[in-house]
Amino acid sequence: MDSWERLAAPFTNGAVRWRVAERSLDGLTVRLRPGLTASAIRARLDEVLGKGGWSYTLFAVGEQALGCNLTISGVSRAAVVAIQQRGLEACADEALAHAAEQFELLPPLDPAAEYWVEADPESKEPLYEPHQQPAAIPEAEKSAGRQAIDRLLERLKAAGAGREAAALIVRYGGYGGSPEASRELYTKLRALLQETIR
User: Fold this and answer.
1) How confident is the model at residue 134 (pLDDT cuts 50, 70, 90)?
2) Which of the listed ranges 54-58, 123-127, 194-198 does the model predict with the highest average pLDDT?
3) E-assigned strand segments in the chain
4) 42, 61 contact by CB (below 8 A)
């Protein structure tokens, strides 16, 4: 296998970093794009080419964009990303990831696919990552407490408070990690429902 094939070998899911690619007009959903982490890219390049076999430079493109020129074995590719509120380091990592994609260093998920997730109404940040959505538990295997939480969630969705309920579910990591946490979650969801239907 030559060095180009070794560079393009599949990455693990642990090498993926989700980045916001687009926001809905109301700000309540965002489209996430999978990309490789900068550390995974650097590690692969070092492993296959050695530290002297590749390089990259960052450059400003006006005041609102950052570019990355990645050179591998004398071949260069560039990418430009918009500087947003996430900071220069995150933008530099994203620019490197985009440049690396031009050399077929790709995440194990399709970057062109649509990955829309709910966003926090206040911070506008994603509430979860697409590959971290918990698998559905069959109804017969759920405890009575979980079934009660599910019924509350359905009522909250019907009452128009689904996003607030989702934020609570995310905060508690699903149904809660212990019976006490589940009871606390149930209490907060019930209070939210009572507040919503007033």
Assistant:
1) very low
2) 54-58
3) 16-23, 29-36, 54-61, 65-72, 75-82, 115-118
4) no
DSSP 85-130: TT-HHHHHHHHHHHHHHTTT---SS-TTS-EEEEB-TTT--BSS-G
Judged by DSSP in three states, 177 sits in coil
- Cβ 186 vs Cβ 149: under 8 Å: yes
What's the whole-number mean pLDDT along residues 18-43?
90
Tell whether the torsion through CA atoms of 153, 169, 85 and 99 is positive or negative. Answer: negative
Domains, the chain, in order of start with CATH, read: 3-127 (3.30.390), 134-196 (no CATH)
Q: What is the pLDDT of residue 21?
A: 85
In angstroms, the CA 67 to CA 48 distance is 24
Q: Kindly tell me if the per-residue pLDDT of 132 is higher than 50.
A: no
Backbone angles phi, psi at 153, to 5 degrees: -60, -40
pTM given for the model: 0.62
List beta partners, residue 22.
31
